[in-house]
Amino acid sequence: MASRSIGQMTLREMLTDAERITHDLVDHLDKNFIPRSRQLAQLVAPTESESFVGDIADITVRNHASKLVDSEDFTEQLYEKLAKYCHSIDGSASRILNED
């Protein structure tokens, strides 16, 4: 069954989907984006005994950075999808409130 576009959904369906996307976004941030960001920061942070990181291979930093960029791309996709739902919910709620 093909999914309907946001404009064809009822307000209840939009709210349900927006809630699911919000949950997915929070879950992704907690379990993927934030931990990867912290890992990269710890990887490149200088230790107490040295003023720069000299033993870490460039490929290691690139791999960690690449994973973080991929995670950020997914975060952005979820955010944009949620923003579309919020805009549609706002429009639908406004139409309902303005009916006479």
Brief sketch in words of this structure:
75% of the residues lie in helices and 0% in strands. It is an all-alpha fold and 100 residues long. The chain is rod-shaped.
What would the keywords be for this entry?
100 residues; mainly alpha; 0% strand; rod-shaped
What does the secondary structure layout of this molecule look like, with pairings?
Elements lengths: L10 H34 L13 H41 L2
Describe what you observe in this structure.
The chain is an all-alpha fold and 100 residues long. It has one domain (10-45, 55-98). It contains two helices and no strands. The protein has helices at 11-44, 58-98. The protein is rod-shaped, with a radius of gyration of 21 Å. The model has no long low-confidence stretch (mean pLDDT 90).
Helix content: over 70%
Mean of pLDDT: 90
Label the structural class.
mainly alpha
Low-confidence stretches: none
Shape: rod-shaped
Question: Oligomeric status of the shown chains?
Answer: single chain
Largest sheet, strands/sense/barrel: none
**What Rg do the Cα atoms give?**
21 Å
Q: In angstroms, what separates the terminal alpha carbons?
A: 36 Å
Quickly count the domains: 1
Element-by-element helix/strand order: HH
User: Can you count the beta strands?
Assistant: 0
- List the total number of helices: 2
The fraction of residues in strands falls at under 5%
